[in-house]
Amino acid sequence: MTAAADDSHGAKKDGAPLIDELTRIPREPLPEGTTPLQMRAFLALAMAKHREGKLADAEQMYRQALRWQPDHPDAYHLLALLAAQLNRADDALPLFERAIALDPTVPEYHANYGNALTIAGRSVDAEAAFEKAIALRPDFPEALMNLATGRRTRGDLDGAERLLHRALELRPDWPDAQLNLANVALARRRFADATALFARALKAEPNYVHAYEGFARAASRAGRLDEAAAAFQRLLTFDPENVVARHLLAACIPDPHYDKAPDAYIRRLFDHYAPQFDVSLAHLQYRAPALIADRLAASVAPDGSLDILDAGCGTGLCGALLKPFAARLVGVDLSAGMLKEAAKRDLYDELLEAELAGFMATRASSFDAIVCCDTLVYQGRLEDTVAAAATALKGGGRLLFTLEQLIDDSENVPYRLAPTGRFCHSAAYVQAVLASARLVDARTEPITPRLECGEPVQGLLVTARARM
Prior knowledge:
Blueprint: H1 18-24, H2 36-51, H3 55-68, H4 73-85, H5 89-102, H6 107-119, H7 123-136, H8 141-153, H9 157-170, H10 175-187, H11 191-204, H12 209-221, H13 225-238, H14 243-252, H15 263-273, H16 277-283, H17 288-297, E1 306-311, H18 317-322, E2 326-333, H19 336-343, E3 350-353, H20 356-361, E4 367-372, H21 383-392, E5 393-405, E6 415-417, E7 423-425, H22 427-436, E8 440-447, E9 451-452, E10 455-456, E11 459-465
Helix pairs in contact: 2-3, 3-4, 4-5, 5-6, 6-7, 6-8, 7-8, 8-9, 8-10, 9-10, 10-11, 11-12, 12-13, 13-14
């Protein structure tokens, strides 16, 4: 897609923003006798080319309209839509702003500006734009739904639900709004309601690919594992490489040989989650790092003397509490996105992208303490990782980690993959693993590491020590 309409065939010059280029375009008088109706017809033709995917032709026509009529708000708005479609936010945002400045009374200008702001990550400004669109047109279902998405994302579930019900009053059985409402129900732990809403959306739009994952998540949490499995399998027919669906499917169809989340699943999950990870965990009253730091402080003084490995360091939430204990602090994680966030804290002497067991196996007798905070929940079988940790500890070094607890052990299994995609472990199994690794002073104590959907998660804080 090119950005200019001159003899260079649209090549942008010197990296200038498109809005600045447009101010330098030589103005041309309208062809003699052109009427406003003919101008609208010209833009309608340009829009038709836009819809057909002839984007270069459409852009040249929008630019031509601005040569003829430099203050035509529709032309700016349409050019902004095209730039947004091509993920050129630096071009799209000022073009939307110019259209709004020329005519602030058009609700579509504000709504589409809000969409572009959302893509640019400016969520507060996006909500303000949607609110303006709704003020101009209270019966604007798309703006209502997009505002609801913003509210839901920042945790205002009541506000999101009210907006979505208004949108559905205006457009009954609208799949997009039903999906959004289903996600609100899912966040409220109303799993049966969420399942029904996802099902209604899929009935209206059977090829709504991303809805299958939502339906399956809701159905699995509602205990309807067969339906959840069928939905994940349906999703995999559309997207065979979807590692998230494949992993969560394993929770619906118990497989004793499935003992670890794939590395690709971890990377995809946490690379996507990284920018909002800390905020999200604050909402969940995440306590696992503090519990680990308190347990470490009960054994050693925070005198800056230890070599510490933060195994599965994430964004560094645990590292901030470990730093007072550390002469040297190393962080390792599979997710490059999480490591990028951790680097911003300026806490670590080393940050490395690696698989935990493999990394620890190469660092024999290197650490006085290894901390693994809510990372081993993505492994069922723990033997290899705990053995590698034992190898990496110095004599007398300490291992501390958290897990989710397997409460219903009626089947006498060591671990189980839950519908959340995380493994739960029995305390007896964990004790056996620690003993097999020849670690001593092993303890497993029940904790509440965080809330999930408003309910406390039942977890384990595990501590052990290497032999001297």
